[in-house]
């Protein structure tokens, strides 16, 4: 009901925007990207007006990634979606709102930036955590959100699983590892923000498995109380961008929407991604920040552990998947 | 048609029509949508979604915690209402307004604050955790926040009845030789039963539906502190709308049956009064 309301309110807003002479775009994104897109939008609108004389206003909407995807499916008039995971884009595409080839529309499989999962530990790294196997040492408490309800949660799970598989471990080794790992998670927060609160404010746990960009913000806010540990290996997180075909065709905004997403690949925008701690697609820009901002992490793609993201989610997280067996009471 | 107008009070059909329309749009329509969505599943799919071991543990916790919290609110609420009606003290108006605060506060805030208080280094947790009392990330924590969010209901249903209670009844009871306990138990309490039951039902239903505060204090551990609404969110995350609404339907049916039962109890207690 709340979503319907939001959609109705949003369409009313947009209708107002169209009536005036300037054009509006709605970028539906996930939670932590608010500041990132604000910077990119300001630069893009300035550039676009200079080049074409058209004044664009870009509205942003943020929330949990899959909640946002459901809002778009239920009728939120997004021109572009910049969500956290292929799973969410795929769900939108399956309803027909986006054509099946959406992923090939922009360079690098529609990935202007990527990210990964890193560790955040307490000052001085008292538990000596440097790699995945350290997480299951006795007495180490791990904070990561519930993989069933959070994108950060399932990415952490995939990273943990892959850390075993990519290094040559068997499926059974991986099951053993994640089982031990989740036994050392004292609280399964429902979302990434909740997990951060648990780790930072309530001071529970020794290590927090976080998105790289969030880890940087967390450490900066903590003013010396926390540090980042880059594991040697982790998952390649792929937050795709896409134009919502049906919406841009109806609203006649395709040209601007495509120009907007193309702009995210420009050197200027790539720099903005890096400054917000997202790994830019452009190698030259990435290189400038590698070693200083971004640690040297071997990032394996999802295809190293499953066919694709939906397959991984189904096998590991979905109903009856590996994650469900971890918590099954003994003797069942 | 003409017969309808013989009612003493005017506007019956108009108000009835309005009431039905209003209830239909606000309550029945969304619930019907829920049932229709769930009906898109085959019986096996439906059963597989709603009757797993993990789901059963979650229902038990959801209804159990709501029930315990409602019982606590019954006692606490009666006490609070009693104090607010029968005694006068400085700051009474303030206390009276505080009672409604849980309704106004976003419940997620309540959950976060409660969890912060009861964790090991929290204001209360630093004394309670060494004693073995885990107020955060435990079932106790869930009950605590449900008591918080359900607090106003019993107070607000009992308060007006107590205010209307004729003190002469108690004087009569005392002059006939009843002890103070007897007066309370046999004279005052029976008149309060319907209000107490209503307050209990409201607090209980509020507890069953509560999500925001619970997810922040429960820790969401499967089989231990995972409430049923979490399962709904988990299924939505898989874009499994049908399965998610199936769980919602089960919650609705159980809640509705319990509310119906409570309503019947209330009827009976009212008949007893007469």
Helices and strands, with pairings:
The complex is a heterodimer of chains A (332) and B (274).
Chain A: H1 2-19, E1 23-29, H2 34-52, E2 56-61, H3 65-73, E3 80-82, H4 86-94, H5 107-110, E4 113-114, E5 117-122, E6 142-143, H6 151-165, H7 171-183, H8 192-200, E7 207-211, H9 212-222, E8 226-229, E9 233-235, E10 242-243, H10 245-251, H11 254-263, H12 267-275, E11 279-280, H13 283-289, E12 298-300, H14 309-317, H15 322-326
Parallel strand pairs in A: 1-2, 1-3, 6-7, 9-12
Antiparallel strand pairs in A: 3-10, 4-11, 5-7, 5-8
Chain B: H1 12-38, H2 43-50, H3 53-86, H4 92-98, H5 101-104, H6 107-118, H7 125-128, H8 139-164, H9 167-175, H10 180-209, H11 212-218, H12 228-237, H13 241-273
Helix pairs in contact in B: 1-13, 2-13, 3-8, 3-10, 6-8, 6-11, 8-10, 8-11, 9-10, 10-13, 12-13
Task: Give an overview of the whole structure.
The complex is a heterodimer of chains A (332) and B (274). In chain A, strands 2-1-3-10 form a four-stranded mixed β-sheet, with helices on both faces. In chain A, strands 6-7-5-8 form a four-stranded mixed β-sheet. Chain A starts with a helix and ends in a 6-residue tail after the last helix. Chain A is an alpha/beta fold and 332 residues long. Mean pLDDT of chain A is 92; it is low at 12-20. Chain A has two domains: 2-114 and 238-289, D-Maltodextrin-Binding Protein, domain 2, CATH 3.40.190; 117-235 and 296-326, Periplasmic binding protein-like II (D-Maltodextrin-Binding Protein, domain 2), CATH 3.40.190.10. Chain A has helices at residues 2-19, 34-52, 65-73, 86-94, 107-110, 151-165, 171-183, 192-200, 212-222, 245-251, 254-263, 267-275, 283-289, 309-317, 322-326, and strands at residues 23-29, 56-61, 80-82, 113-114, 117-122, 142-143, 207-211, 226-229, 233-235, 242-243, 279-280, 298-300. Helix content of chain B is 77%, strand content 0%. Chain B has 13 helices and no strands. Chain B has helices at residues 12-38, 43-50, 53-86, 92-98, 101-104, 107-118, 125-128, 139-164, 167-175, 180-209, 212-218, 228-237, 241-273. Chain B has one domain (41-273): MetI-like (MetI-like fold, Orthogonal Bundle), CATH 1.10.3720. In chain B, helix 3 (53-86) runs parallel beside helix 8 (139-164), helix 8 (139-164) crosses helix 10 and helix 12 (228-237) packs antiparallel against helix 13 (241-273). In chain B, 35% of the residues are buried. Chain A binds chain B through residues 1, 66-67, 69-70, 91, 146, 148-150, 186-190, 194, 197, 201-204, 313, 317-319, 324, 327-329, 332, and chain B through 30, 49, 52-54, 112, 115-116, 119-122, 136-137, 215-216, 219-223, 230, 233-240, 243.
